[in-house]
Amino acid sequence: MKAVRVLAGADGGRIEVQDIPIPNPGPNEVLIRVRASGINFGETVYIREHRSGSPMTAGVEFAGEVFSVGAQVEGWREGDRVMGHGRSCHAQYVVASPFALMPIPDDVSWVDAAAFPNVFMTAHDALVTNGELKPGESVLINGASGGVGMAAIMIASAMGAKPVIASSRSADKLARLAEFGVDIGINASQESQVEAVMAATDKRGVDIIIDFLGGSVLEDHIQSLAVKGRLVNIARLSGEQYGRLDLRQVWLNRLKVVGVTFRTRSEQERIDLIQACARDLLPFFREGKLRLPIDRTFQMDEIADAYAYIQKGQHMGKIVLIAD
């Protein structure tokens, strides 16, 4: 089968499409014939960091059909259309845990299904599990035009958040985000986040902030939160090191600051995350309320172009790799 392989190098990894054997599922695993897989910015970071070790197959989310099931697997059978989360899926076949799979509705394409698992799992974990979202609470999402940011917008809107606030440095992107559930847009290149948030919440502040920027925005975030507010950090696009943290304000307003990542989760924690996402979001997915726009698709032999494209940061929505 064809697969996108990450090869180690002293100055960072590189990618190459290779022919490798089809993997064999164990008794508790499922073999999936991959039809499409989502591409995420985090994969480019992994490639840069792969300076030693054996070659690895890239990819973390996929859509396809069950090709075979292990002897002890229940609930799935050959031919089932599934989407799921699992490493090494930028390939024509992937082995996955049966608990990491979700059914694809009949009217959903392979491409749309491949765009769902990773971003909606990540956004759900940040917004619902760690952010403890309740209907009627307010949410601010910064850097909101990326895949996870847009997923968080749609989840917040579907689950009754009010208002849903998004910030971006692009007026054009803010205008497009309105159709996905944003009530108020903040142009970060022209407006004060704190002032805009207080105006939108009657000076109360927001209950939850989903943060992709890190570094330069910590002080504004702390000042933008309501009493008992939650700041959930997913990425650090503006820097790894936070600015000054006003602990008195954290203490006085009883704030929570939480970091989320897949990197330090056990396999059981990953499965629990997938199952929680499926429980809460699949009904909305079936109803068509949770669909990311597809910015662009690439064939597997175009993977280098796909990674170069996502690194530019100019896309809006998902980029998907076609496995056929």
Count the DSSP helices: 10
- Distance between the ends: 10 Å
The total number of structural domains is 2
CATH superfamily of the largest domain: Medium-chain alcohol dehydrogenases, catalytic domain
How many strand units?
16
Gyration radius, rounded:
20 Å
**Class computed from helices, strands and strand pairing:** alpha/beta
Describe the structure.
With 324 residues, the protein is an alpha/beta fold. It has two domains: 2-116 and 292-322, Alpha-Beta Complex (Quinone Oxidoreductase, Chain A, domain 1), CATH 3.90.180.10; 119-259, Rossmann fold (3-Layer(aba) Sandwich), CATH 3.40.50. Helix content is 30%, strand content 27%. Helix 3 (117-130) packs across helix 4 (147-158), helix 3 packs across helix 9 and helix 6 packs parallel to helix 7 (218-224). It starts with a strand and ends with a strand.
SSE blueprint:
Blueprint: E1 2-7, E2 14-19, E3 30-39, H1 41-49, E4 56-57, E5 61-69, E6 81-85, E7 93-96, E8 101-103, H2 110-114, H3 117-130, E9 139-141, H4 147-158, E10 164-168, H5 171-177, E11 184-187, H6 193-200, E12 206-211, H7 218-224, E13 225-233, H8 247-252, E14 256-259, H9 267-286, E15 294-299, H10 303-312, E16 318-322
Parallel strand pairs: 9-10, 9-12, 10-11, 12-13, 13-14, 15-16
Antiparallel strand pairs: 1-2, 1-4, 3-5, 3-7, 3-16, 5-6, 6-8
Helix pairs in contact: 3-4, 3-9, 6-7
